Amino acid sequence: MPLSIRIFLVYLLFIGLTGYFVLNTVMKEIRPGVRQSTEETLVDTANLLAEILHDDVKNGTLSQSRLPQVLKAYGQRKPAATIWGLEKNQVNHRIYVTDAHGIVLLDSAEQAVGQDYSNWNDVYLTLRGEYGARSTRTVDGDPNSSVMHVGAPITDNGQIIGVVTVAKPNSSLQPYVDRTEHRLLWYGAGLIGLGLLFGALLSWWLSAALRRLTAYAQAVSEGRRAELPHYRGGEMAQLANAVEHMRTQLEGKAYVERYVHTLTHELKSPLAAIRGAAELLQGEMPQAQRERFVGNIDSESARMQQLIERLLNLALVEQRQALEEQVEVPLASLVDEVLQAQAARIERGRLQVEQSIAPDLKVFGEPFLLRQAIGNLLDNALDFTPTEGVVRFKAERQGRQLCFSLFNQAEAIPEYALPRLSERFYSLPRPGSGRKSTGLGLNFVEEVMKLHGGELRIGNVPGGVEVSLRFP
Fold first, then answer.
1. To the nearest 5 percent, what fractions of the chain are helix, strand and coil?
2. What pLDDT score was predicted for residue 313?
3. Which segments cross the bilayer (predicted)?
4. What class has domain 252-319?
5. Which of 214, 112, 211, 208 is nearest to 165 (CA)?
6. 183 pLDDT band (50/70/90 cuts)?
């Protein structure tokens, strides 16, 4: 099945399910929403009538007043109103009044005068000083025959002397509910249709873009000339650039040329020093001078050996796609091992080492690579820490990360050098000798952190430099 069809089917499923759940939820809320609005209106109407009826109920003159004739005339009115496209030709409110005992005194429907309504919730609850309302079906089993009733107290000096109830059948609201549901369905169907059209266009565009990129990759693999497809930003442009970069790397010309040139440059200096010292040693010279030249040869040879070993280690890490071993590694014991390996150098420089890592703090990764990475950091820090300086190890959890940091007292790193410190072969002169290192240590640490899903950060802090390793 083509990728565009699969993308469209997934999009169709997502849009369909989303549309169904949204429309279904909204449809279920329409009827209650309309009824809630109507109930709020009934509350206002009932309380208005309660104030109008107060005097007649108090004086017992309700049956002699004009209200029965008014309500009868009200029931016969024909509004002939058009409400949002729907015609209304009759009034639907029923109004009845009860005394303080729940006996009906007046009924606009002329059905319940003299009956005891004290057990109906609209009367019963209102007489008790609570909000009285009920919804009762006039036909059992038919939810469309329900009628909403809302009562309001008629009070005199804080005493409830009667109740007026306003009722409205829900069937009078159904046309508005039906119209709203129909409109919502049409709008929902239209939006889903537009969404599917957009999804189809997106699938077609993505498929076409991938086909162009596939054709380019196929042409490159066959050795044919091909123009890199052009995309206006986004992930497709990044993918195209990545394919082009991969092509360049596979051809190897630029990569090998740069690598060999840099390596040759790095080896040129120690080789020249060794050759010069060897030539001088062939002649007669004082013993002290001879020992100095022999020392030069030894140090330059060690430098070349270190360069080669670190290049091999770096190449090994760069070729890996994942960690070969993943276990819990106690950071405190790992730092102790690294410090023990550098104990002679630390003692020679009379350095103050502070290690405040909790024994139970562990990181998940490959012990050998982590040990080498921390060893490189310490080796680099010792190069720049002055005599009797401070080296401090810390580790703590920060949110969902574990942050390991190494501080060393030193001069601040120049701003121009900060973004380049982890570049291959880039190094700063050491304070004591003015010589540079292989420039591979921090690059190796950065590659190790990438394998562990973390990151390397280097920055100046008050009093020195701090390097931090952030693990997930």
1. 55, 20, 25
2. 61
3. 6-27, 184-206
4. mainly alpha
5. 112
6. confident
